[in-house]
Amino acid sequence: MTVPVYQNFIHGQFLANHSGEKFAVKNPATDEVIYEVEVADSHVQQAAIESAKAGFALWSAMAPIERSRVLHKAVSLLRERNNELAKIEVLDTGKPWQEAECVDIQTGADVIEYFAGLAPAQVGTQQPVGGDFFYTRKEPLGICAGIGAWNYPLQIACWKSGPALAAGNALIFKPSEETPLGAIKLAEIFIEAGVPAGVFNVVQGAAEVGQWLTTSPDIEKVSFTGEVGTGKKVMQSAASNLKEVTMELGGKSPLIVFEDADISQAISAAMLGNFYTQGEVCTNCTRVFVQRKVYDAFLAELKQRTEQNIIAGDPFDPNVNLGALISKQHHTLVMDYIAKGKAEGATVLTGGEALSPETAPNGYFVAPTVFIDCHDDMTIVKEEIFGPVMSVLVFDDEEEVIQRANNTHLGLAAGVFSKDIQRAHRVIHQLEAGICWINSYGNSPAEMPVGGYKQSGIGRENGIETLDQYTQTKSVYVGMSDIESPF
Ligand code: NAD
Where in the numbering of this chain does the Aldehyde dehydrogenase domain appear (predicted)? Predict the structure, then answer.
């Protein structure tokens, strides 16, 4: 069967590569190749840079309010095409339709809308110094690069392009090689909305193309979303011309459930933070600490709800709420972690096996898995698994749980469930994590900055401060009187 072949999207149109090299993309729920994509070879790469230079010249010269109008049009188009785009995300990622339909495109559009609104509000400062004065200008950086992960492909493309474009930059975006199509659709939408050609180019490929973006001397900044190990490599290459970097990396986040919490609510949070998007969410609370007095009650309800309420299968079935993992390779990795959990002495409360649902027998499914009898030094408790695998740990007091929650080199997110508001804030303030929730988990509105402490990241996405991270400050000193000079 022949499948469509997508080319790189450069300067408002598709551009053929010269090498002829391409790669296949599979639907994780069926194990079938759904399309192929051409790799960005040196011809495409050079074209992407030339085009971005031309795009940047036009875009950065436009008044911010004009850029804002254009971006708002793109937001409308994203919302109008929600279902068409959500379908692409389901086919590429294997996630349930019931999620993609109301989350992926909406949360992407929200962020572009938010930054489109802020674009005309960016102001410089003015300050008198003696009889002279200076003023500052917020200027765009130039050509930026975005490199995305595969779990929220279109949302990640929107989260990077929103602030980059609002601030007047051009962006060359490389989606993950597992999920390349959503970014192309976003590029088409930008062109239709009136964004000049070259302002948002899409290059395709795996690590090599990513490496080129991180070393290109014409690129001023890299915004990266992916694994900690890859992030370190990206930062190292970005040092070649001292590029600015934003790093949105992995996590092993704690959820702390105190005995006074609403236990059913805490279980909802733990399930959302481990099984939503089949566990492939960077902020997941994969270490759930439960205070001893409520431990048994917590486990009983968690087991019952996990076994009764989760439906795995064809992601397009609107009742399905657990999709397929991204690839066969990732499926193997997650199953290996589960095997390690068992081997190191953790007990499977529920799940712990691969699934082959009737409606999607060839998909890469893993049962929602809860491990108990866990210790802090087990591999499953220490390493990011990025699948539907929760470790539940028991604790006795506040001081102990804070120390254990912080005992990791990662610091992306954290959650606390307690009805004691003073305790909830006191504990959250001591947790070493950038994205925190009290009596909630996972919400990430456009207005709220997100990013990690420690090795989970550098810089932030969303929120007002992110716009600044796509600008540089120019100070202009103005002499109002004669220069005092000894010469
Ligand atoms: P990954 O690090 O394998 O790949 C991410 C991207 O980097 C891909 O586009 C890939 O092609 C590219 N890449 C690979 N090697 C590269 C190199 N040497 N130089 C430049 N680019 C390179 O990550 P993944 O498996 O796609 O995504 C899962 C990871 O992403 C998890 O660790 C997850 O926690 C993290 N993540 C973080 C956030 C966040 O906001 N903090 C969001 C989503 C995912």
Answer: 17-476
